[in-house]
Amino acid sequence: MNSQTTEQAKCPIKVVIADDHPLFREALRQLLETDPTLQLIGEASDGHEAIKLVRELRPDLLLLDFAMPLVPGLDTLRELSTMTPAVRTLLLTASVDDADVVEALQLGARGVVMKHTASELLFKGIRTVMAGEYWVGRECMGNVIDKMRARASAPEPVQRGSTFGLTARELQMVSTVVAGYPNNDIAAKFSISVKTVKHHLTNIFDKLGVSNRLELALFAVHHHIDSGPAPTVDCDSSRQVRLL
Which of 8, 110, 156, 170 is the most buried (most CB within 10 A)? Predict the structure, then answer.
């Protein structure tokens, strides 16, 4: 590890909190203060303040309440999506619909944490997001992938996107990932080994510049990658989305 990397590792993660409930902000502030690698640099009580603080303070991470007054969480994300560089945003919510999770992720949110979740999961979510990955807790995962497929198949005036250099088999793999099937079911579908499935996924990740299944699914939906109809997988194993 060179000196520059070491210096970066010593720098705390700069955080801005945006929530309209003072008691929740206070509790969250006290929780963040227990971790010396996190530095709270600002607090906002509504969407307007959140946008203003992010633009002025340039935090590494924004903890954003989904149900903010004046400017709701999704509208705040939409406004912040024009910023360069983009701030990593982790949504905090008491309840959320699958469709809202999908839209939030497509607008640039890096994850969703339920407000009643254990503190260690919040910290894990922060670490995951700051590592460049996505965090979507099991509690709010629901049928997110199904919602993504519905959006992808809905009629739109724009032309279908390119295949980004993916082969026909790789496009089939994308279809199964967007459908939410695990590697074992994909292997059974195409009569190949799980190792071969992983090899295909690695090639797809490299070609598209993504690092996990959720990023791949979001990329496919956003760019309208024409991967064909949803596959039918005849397996005894239950369908399970594995994103993290």
Answer: 110
CA 160, distance to chain mean position in Å, is: 23
- 120-166, pLDDT tens digit by residue? 888 988 998 898 877 876 544 445 555 555 555 555 544 455 788 88
Q: What is the domain-level CATH number for residue 218?
A: 1.10.10.10
User: Domain count of the chain?
Assistant: 2
Strand ranges (E), the chain: 13-18, 38-44, 61-65, 88-93, 111-114, 135-136
Q: What are residue 131's phi and psi, to 5 degrees?
A: -85, 0
Name the residue range of residue 209's domain. 145-222
Lowest-confidence region among 64-68, 175-179, 211-215: 211-215
- Alpha-carbon separation of residue 55 from 19, 60, 87 (angstroms): 17, 11, 9
Backbone conformation region of residue 68, classed left if phi is above 0, alpha if psi is from -120 to 50, else beta: beta
Tens digits of per-residue pLDDT, 177-192? Answer: 877 677 888 888 889 9
Beta carbons within 8 Å of 68's beta carbon, 6+ residues apart: 18, 19, 20, 46, 47, 50, 76
Q: Contact, 111 vs 135, CB < 8 A?
A: yes
In a domain, 195, yes or no: yes
217 and 198 share one domain: yes
Euclidean distance between the first and the last CA atom of the chain, given in angstroms as a whole number: 27
Q: What is the pLDDT of residues 13-34, one digit of tens each?
A: 999 999 999 999 999 999 999 9
Say yes or no: 43 and 113 in one domain. yes
Which domain-ending residue is among 86, 106, 140?
A: 140
Is residue 50 included in any domain, yes or no?
Answer: yes
CATH number at residue 51: 3.40.50.2300
